[in-house]
Write a structure and sequence with these properties.
By secondary structure, the protein is of the alpha/beta class. It folds into three domains: 58 residues, no CATH class; 119 residues, Aspartate Aminotransferase, domain 1 (Alpha-Beta Complex); 249 residues, Aspartate Aminotransferase, domain 2 (3-Layer(aba) Sandwich), CATH 3.40.640.10. The chain is 43% helix and 17% strand. α9 links the parallel β7 and β8. Bound molecules: pyridoxal-5'-phosphate.
Length: 446
């Protein structure tokens, strides 16, 4: 019997894996006995069950799909943007075999790395040139390293922000080999403040989108045009870290306005950097658009090689940008855009469906209610997006235990806890995930 069970494990998981798991299990049992814990007599059946559980845990990849029931659309801890099916298909197609990454198909010689992404970015933003790097942090570092190393970078005191714990504007400037010159005050900075700070060592006027942070009330900042005019008078360049950046007018999604990349380009900003996996809804990358001569300097910088994208992300990015090019209005084939565009009626309907799927399970309270969600990714930070939620109040366990059980579920479900209840926000649940999330809650409550 036990021999059969062990043989079945070996057939399913391979002999070395089973051996490792048996040794680890025996080690645990031995330690428990030595520590005087009540380990009981050794029994092969339960022991093999434990070995199987260990092997199954090991077989699961550590990076796996998760269900986002938080309502935060661009959730950095949950991998930011889910990709469009076109982007996924492009990655599979290019990743399966070889690809025309750096070959000139007309001559068969080595060519420039594919330029599809750059051409699309120029078309979509109106910029002269573009490049893609590993992420926006890399794009900013590259811009400062190429344009400001050995010189000074002027930044408003209101924009010396930290984003996501490790991207701190003063540190990026130092890493770029430049010296930070702060101007203005926390709440008010004028064009004349920039102008007065300019000296022979000044190279760049840097503008940073404060992303997850807002100064409100008695505030002032020069317009893009005013800043560009100051830079022109002194032969300097304006670099803008737009953070999330967006290519669509977010008001068309029923949301407040978020600055677009096109607007910065049109205002004369020399280089604009932004993330590809925030509101844009593509794979992780940092995009730079702007004047050709400056983009060429970034491209020639030694860090470019360290920051360049691989074929998989280039494929996904090109496919995502094509959806923007081919859409008449906001491209709803991009999941981030579709999730943001859902209106109240759609969200309410989804919440009611989720509540129906949960009906009769062991919760005291089950309530469909309007709630507040955030776009995430530092975009629209002040804007609370009205959304619809299902709140669950467990009967037999604490709400924190319920949330923990959902995280241990396969696939894990990540939800919010508010006022003693588990809150599932349907904005970030795709249609097929409603049933999956409901099943997970049922199992976690059982
Ligand atoms: C998010 C953000 C970054 C970092 O972008 P990554 O793509 O995560 O590297 C930098 N600057 C601003 C203003 C941001 O919002």
């Amino acid at each position: 019997m036990e021999g059969d069970a062990a043989r079945a494990l070996v057939a399913e998981f391979s002999r070395p894996a089973v051996l490792r798991a048996v040794r680890a299990g025996l080690g645990g049992w031995r330690r428990a006995v030595l520590a005087g814990e009540p380990a009981g007599p050794f029994a092969a059946g339960p022991f093999l069950a434990e070995v199987r559980a260990r092997l199954e845990r090991e077989r699961r990849p550590s990076l796996r799909r998760a269900i986002n029931a938080t309502g935060v659309v661009v959730h950095t801890n949950l991998g930011r943007a889910p990709l469009a099916s076109e982007a996924l298909a492009a990655m599979v197609e290019v990743g399966r075999g070889y690809a025309s990454l750096e070959i000139d198909l007309a001559t068969g010689r080595r060519g420039a790395r594919v330029g599809g992404v750059e051409a699309l970015l120029c078309l979509l933003t109106g910029a002269e040139a573009a490049l893609a790097a590993n992420n926006n942090a890399a794009a900013v570092l590259l811009a400062l390293g190429a344009l400001a190393a050995g010189g000074e970078v002027v930044v408003s005191r209101g924009e010396l922000v930290e984003i996501g714990g490790s991207f701190r504007v003063p540190e990026i400037i130092r890493q770029g080999g430049a010296v930070l010159v702060e101007v203005g005050t926390t709440n008010k900075t004028r064009a004349s403040d920039y102008e007065r700070a300019i000296g022979p060592a000044t190279r760049v006027l840097l503008k940073v989108h404060p992303s997850n942070y807002r100064i409100t009330g008695f505030t002032a900042a020069p317009s893009h045009e005013e800043l560009v005019a100051v830079a022109r008078r002194h032969g300097l360049v304006v670099v803008e870290d737009l953070g999330s950046g967006t290519l669509v007018d977010t008001r068309r999604l029923g949301l407040p306005e978020e600055p677009t990349v096109q607007a910065s380009v049109a205002a004369g900003v020399d280089l604009v950097t932004f993330s590809a996996d925030k509101l844009l809804g593509g794979p992780q990358a940092g995009l730079v658009v702007g004047r050709a001569e400056l983009v060429a300097r970034l491209r020639a910088h030694p860090l470019m090689r360290a920051f360049r994208l691989d074929k998989l992300r280039l494929a996904a990015l090109e496919a995502t940008l094509r959806l923007y090019r081919d859409a008449d209005g906001p491209p709803e084939r991009v999941p981030v855009i579709a999730m943001l565009a859902q209106d109240g009626a759609v969200l309410r309907h989804k919440a009611e469906r989720l509540a129906n799927l949960l009906h009769g399970c062991e919760a005291v309270g089950l309530e469909v209610a309007e709630g507040i969600a955030f776009a995430g990714g530092g975009a629209l930070p002040e804007s609370e997006l009205p959304t619809w939620t299902v709140a669950v109040q467990p009967l037999k366990q604490s709400v924190d235990d319920l949330a923990a059980a959902l995280r241990r579920h396969e696939p894990p479900v990540i939800a919010r806890v508010a006022r003693g209840r588990l809150v599932l926000d349907v904005r970030t649940l795709a249609e097929p995930e409603l049933a999956e999330a409901a099943q997970a809650v049922r199992e976690a409550l059982a």
